[in-house]
C-alpha cells in the first residue's frame, strides 16, 4: 500500500459530510468488492480540487483506472480510493490501494494514453526509490580487463543490446586500433601479426627424376642448408673409398717461450732428445727395452699399491685430469690450471716429452682418440682444440658460448666428437666440416660428463640438474631419463672393463653403479661409500680385471673397494690436496697413477 496525502480547501466539508460506507449503502452495494467499486466510481466522478503538490496522485489514479478498463477480466480491481483514517481524525488523507502484477510494476508512469499504449509522457525507468535495480550476469575477467583498459587508456568496451560500443575516448580507441591494456578488444585478427608459414619446396617426382626426389624430407623455401647435394655426395664417396681429408699441421717455432698462449697462437715445445730415433720411429712409439709386453693382457694377479715410486713435477697449478695412452699406457697426458697440456713417459726416463700451448685459461678435460694419434682439450677460455699427439700441432679449434666441461671422441667415427658445456646442451661437431652437425638440448643445467656405451651407438650424459640421460648417437631424443629426488649430481664417470657397468661419482659421498645396456638400471647392491668428495669431481677408476674400484677424495687419499662385496679394502694417503683423478696401468696391474690439486702426478706400486 502506498499512502498519498491530498490537500483540498474547497471540497473538504462536502467529503466529510458523506461517509463512504453510507454512500455505498445508499447505492445498495454490500461487501468489500462493492465498496472498492463504489470508491473507484466516486473517485472518477467526484470533482476533487488538489493542490499542485499532490497532482501526481490524480495522474496515478487516472492511469490505473485506464489500465483497469483495458482488460478488466485479467485483473482484480486495481484502484480504490477509501478513507485512510477510519477514526475520522483527518479527512484530508486518501488511501490508494494498488494490486498490480509484475508487468505494471516496472511500466513507466505516464498519462492515460500512455497506459493505453499511446506515446509516453514520461520515460522514467526507476523501479525503486533511488533508481532501477536489475540482475545482471557479469564476466569478472572481461570486467577487470575493461576496467584496466579504461584506467590505462581512457576507453573501454560495453554492450548496448547486441552491439559493442566504445565508452570514453573514442578517438583514441580508433587511433590505437582498438588495443587495450591486455590485448585487442575486438575479435578481428590482424593479418600482419600472423606468423608467415614457410612454404615447402617441391618434393619432386620419383619417376621423372629419381635423383631430385625429396619426398617428405623436402625442405622449406629460403632455409639455410649446411651442405649442398654435391658436397654431400662427395663426402659419401670419400667415406666409401676410405679417403679422409688430410690436415695441414701448424709448424711451431723451434724455441717458443714457455707460458700461456692467446687463442689462435697455438704452439708446442718438445722436451725430448729427438722426435725420432735412429730407426726413424717417432717418440710416441712403444718402448722396446722396458721388459713389459704391451701387446699382451698383462698379469692375471693384481695387488694393491703400497708405496710411491715416482713423482712427475712440471705443472705450476692444480692438475684437473690425466689420461693414459690407449691400449698400451706407456704415455701419460695431463691437463692443468696453468693452461698447459703435457705428455709424460711412464717408462724409461719418465720425463715430460711435450708441452701443448694454446689455451689462455685452465684446461678442464682431455681425451684421446682410440689410436692415440690425436686428443681433445676443453678449456675455461671457452675453446675446444684438437691436437696432433706426435707433432704438437693444433689441428682445429672450436669456440663455445660458455665454458666446455667435457669433450670426447666418438669411438666409431673419430672425425666426430661431443662437447658438453655450461650452456645446458651437448654439441656434436664434425672435424671434417668444422661445424656443428647436431645438438642435444634436454638438460636443464651444466653438462658434467659424456660417456659412450654400446660400442659407440649410444652415450650417457650427466648434469648438474641431478639427472642422467641416455641418447642414441645422432638422434637428439632422450631414450632413457633417470631422475630421483634422492639423486645428487654425478660429476665424474668411469666404465667397468667388461663394458657392462659404469660408475658415477655422486656428490653425496658415494659411487653409484648403473648398467650400460637395456634398461640402464641402477645396481642397488653396489654402492661404494666412506670417502669425502662433496663438491669435488674426483673421477673413479677400475683395475684391469675389474676386481677393484678406486677413487680419490678431498683429503688426498686414495680409496680401494672390492667390486663384489662393495667393502673398502684399503686407504692410501697420496697427496696433500684433493686427489682429483687416478688411473690403473693396463699392463703393470699393480701400479696406479694419481694426480692432485697440489700440482703433482705420482706413480704408486
Automatic annotation (TrEMBL):
Signal peptide: none annotated. InterPro entries: PRPF17 (IPR032847), WD40/YVTN_repeat-like_dom_sf (IPR015943), WD40_PAC1 (IPR020472), WD40_repeat_dom_sf (IPR036322), WD40_rpt (IPR001680). It is found in: Nucleus. Pfam families: WD40. The keyword Methyltransferase does not apply. SMART domains: WD40. GO terms for biological process: mRNA splicing, via spliceosome. GO terms for cellular component: catalytic step 2 spliceosome. SUPFAM superfamilies: WD40 repeat-like. Residues 1-44 are annotated as: Disordered. GO terms for molecular function: mRNA binding. WD repeats lie at residues 312-346, 356-397, 440-472, 542-571, 572-605. The keyword Electron transport does not apply. Keywords: mRNA processing, mRNA splicing, Nucleus, Repeat, Spliceosome, WD repeat. PROSITE patterns: WD_REPEATS_2, WD_REPEATS_REGION. Its main location: nucleus. Coiled coil: none annotated. This is Pre-mRNA-processing factor 17. It comes from Fonticula alba (Slime mold).
